[in-house]
């Protein structure tokens, strides 16, 4: 059986709020062998798909998203929290497992018809991923894969992005 990244994920109880079991990926990225393993497994998920742009969300999505873009010879598109991107942006509100927020993406970051991989570390309620999907589609991008390290399946986030090709390395 293929080695799992699971041993590098730390559970932190009641962070950032009581009742949340936080999946901490800092041990994963802190161990070179864990980081490499995760990168290689994320690349296996892409499995020959041609990708023009990798889109990832601030901030934990950036850890792997930019590496994937380099390895796939794709461009990298940061989706950021409000007020951080300097040029004109699409804006999308969303609900989180622990609050609400807005995300932004530059309006010229994706060209019509470009093939897009959306990557984030964790799929929880799916609000973040759904917001990013909406902005990518507003820009005219074609979403070929939405990839995660971890799917917290009990939060049913996949239902919000059920019409897409969704893959995760670990499911809880
Ligand atoms: O599926 P959802 O319920 O929308 O939650 C998943 C999102 O929550 C976390 O980000 P967070 O907003 O905590 O920001 P961070 O990456 O900057 O820590 C995580 O990195 C995902 O982006
Ligand atoms: N439980 C959780 N652990 C880590 N990241 C998250 N993002 C949303 N919920 C999370």
UniProtKB/TrEMBL annotation:
Record carries keyword Transferase: yes
Recorded GO CC terms: cytoplasm
E.C. numbers: 2.4.2.7
Stretches assigned to the Phosphoribosyltransferase domain: 38-150
Keyword annotations of the record: Cytoplasm, Glycosyltransferase, Purine salvage, Transferase
Biological process according to GO: adenine salvage; AMP salvage; purine ribonucleoside salvage
UniProt entry tagged with the keyword Amino-acid biosynthesis: no
Pfam families per UniProt: Pribosyltran
Reaction it catalyzes: AMP + diphosphate = 5-phospho-alpha-D-ribose 1-diphosphate + adenine
Location in the cell: Cytoplasm
Membrane-crossing segments per the record: none
Known partners and oligomeric status: Homodimer.
Protein family membership: Belongs to the purine/pyrimidine phosphoribosyltransferase family.
NCBIfam families per UniProt: apt, PRK02304.1-3, PRK02304.1-5
Protein purpose: Catalyzes a salvage reaction resulting in the formation of AMP, that is energically less costly than de novo synthesis.
Protein name: Adenine phosphoribosyltransferase
Record organism: Sediminitomix flava
